[in-house]
Design a protein that fits this description.
Blueprint: E1 9-18, E2 25-34, H1 49-65, E3 75-79, E4 90-95, H2 102-107, E5 115-117, H3 118-126
Antiparallel strand pairs: 1-2, 2-4, 3-4, 3-5
Protein name: Histidine triad nucleotide binding protein 3
Pfam families: DcpS_C
Family: Belongs to the HINT family.
Length: about 130
């Protein structure tokens, strides 16, 4: 089977949210895919690993352009259906994770029923036969 090639067109939205009394900002980058027929992350297969990796790579590039260099304090991930209001694939890039507010920590928490990190998704896809 030939490797999948993706011609991607991105729309990137950035939202700065005050998350503490000292107004530290949470950077939320959402990378939306256009011209790619991809549903949510549950509809992906092993052949979509390069697509997920490209989304993460794009997120890292955006962070670097915005002077976010500590990738250990960044979370890359996806809402896990049925807990998502947008049904097409998009990546959330959250930084700094250590300063996220209560609601963001709840919505984007690790090992939850409604959010999966990009690493967890890649691992899951690679384990498919």
């Amino acid at each position: 089977m030939a490797a999948a090639k993706w011609e991607l067109s991105f729309c990137i939205t950035m939202k700065l949210c005050p998350v503490s009394e000292i107004f530290t900002l949470e950077l939320l980058i959402t990378i939306w895919l256009y011209q790619v027929n991809v549903g949510n992350c549950k509809s992906l297969g092993k052949e979509h690993v390069p697509l997920v990796e490209k989304l993460v790579e794009t997120g890292k590039e955006i962070l670097q352009k915005n002077n976010v260099t500590d990738l250990s304090d960044v979370r890359f991930g996806f809402h896990w259906p049925p807990f998502c209001s947008v049904t097409h694939l998009h990546l959330h890039v959250l930084a700094p994770v250590s300063q996220m507010g209560f609601m963001s920590r709840l919505v984007y928490r690790l090992n939850s029923y409604w959010f999966i990190t990009a690493d967890q998704l890649v691992q899951r896809l690679n384990s498919m036969s």
